[in-house]
Amino acid sequence: SKKLIATPTRTKEILKKYKFAFKKSLGQNFLTDVNILENIISHTGIDKTSGAIEIGPGIGALTEQLAIHADKVVAYEIDQRLLPILKDTLQDYSNVEVIHQDILEADVREAIKTNFNPDQPIHIVANLPYYITTPILMKLVRENLPVDSLTVMIQKEVAERMAAKPNSKSYGSLTIAVQYYTHAKVVMNVPKSVFMPQPNVDSSILKLVVRDKPPVQVEDEAFFFKIVKASFAQRRKTLRNNLTSHFNEIYDKEMISQKLEELGIDGTRRGESLDMEEFAILANGFHQK
Ligand code: SAM
Fold first, then answer.
1. Residue pLDDT, tens place only, 75-91
2. Which of 14, 136, 164, 282 could be bridged to 175 by S-S, CB 3.0 to 4.6 A?
3. Ligand 1 neighbourhood includes 154 CB (under 6 angstroms)
4. 226-234 — which CB contacts under 8 Å span 24+ positions?
């Protein structure tokens, strides 16, 4: 039997055979370590009944592992040059569908309908291109897809921000945006040495388990996220001052202070000390009905 794709030797062989030159602009850093891949798979919850969706299969390192462990794999790849390569490297696996498309443009809901059974658990798994990690993840979690989890390799700092707790340096509006839709956890840090070529940043594996419903009830989601952003606008400023700047055309400082008092939230606190529930109280309190 052939060697697995995700070894330095086989990867080099494939790159050479196809004279493949990495495109930095597409965030191409391929995984060349089977142990890391098995580790990722073990955190996904994937088994032989599962559907898997991958973003950016590259030359198929992770795709191969998904094909082995899941029932079916759908993989989105933007780089045309990789299509013939994937056809070759994944020829032994009949349960992989590669879609040549920018994930940001893709109708994932439709692809799920077409490729998976209605009762099949679905997991998104990817070693994401780092230049568009946040847009990709926000698209996927906001669309309310019938997906159980997302397990992704991303830049360490971004993973920490998405999984942060209140009163930490990483906690901010991105934390709230992600945790409104999912339970987020950093499951493991990954050294640069397992990638080819090696990226400039450290990486982590982040697991997002999709929530059945949001953890708080907000009257207006867009307004809720605006209030969260405003509260973090200048991290060193108090909540009262950040909100005063944000609402400067409607309320003065006195009115903001009074409103905060009514809501039972101390205006001298900083945004980073508020949890999701308190942001919901804040947003619902300031929301104009
Ligand atoms: N999964 C492979 C691995 O782990 O070795 C490759 C991971 S590499 C970090 C990111 C992959 O995403 C590349 O193959 C790149 O061409 C692809 N990619 C970049 N932008 C994309 C986009 N907008 N939509 C789909 N794929 C994209």
1. 999 999 999 999 999 99
2. 164
3. no
4. 227/279, 227/282, 227/283, 227/286, 228/173, 228/176, 228/177, 228/271, 228/279, 228/283, 229/173, 231/173, 231/271, 231/274, 231/279, 231/282, 232/172, 232/173, 232/271, 232/272
Pairwise CA distance, residues 169 & 177, whole Å = 16
pTM: 0.96
Half-sphere exposure of 230 (CA within 13 A, CB side): 20
Query: Could you give the CA distance from residue 221 to residue 279 in angstroms, rounded to a whole number?
Result: 11
Ligand 1: centre distance to CA 136 (Å):
11
Ligand 1 in contact with 27 (CB < 6 A)? yes
Tokens 């990638």 correspond to: 195
Q: Does 29 carry a binding-site annotation?
A: yes
CA 100 to chain centre: 20
Both tokens assigned to 170: 């990483």
Distance 82 CA to ligand 1 centre (A): 10
Is 62 a pocket residue for ligand 1 (Cβ < 6 Å)?
yes
Is residue 57 in contact with ligand 1, taking CB distance under 6 Å?
Answer: yes
Residue with the nearest Cα to atom 6 of ligand 1? Answer: 58
* Contact status, residue 278 vs residue 263, Cβ threshold 8 Å: no
Which pLDDT tens digit goes with each residue over 182-193? 999 999 999 999
- Residue 203 Cβ < 6 Å to ligand 1: no
**Ligand 1 atom nearest to 63, measured from its CA:** 1
Average pLDDT over every residue of 114-124: 97
CA–CA separation, 215 and 259 (whole Å): 24
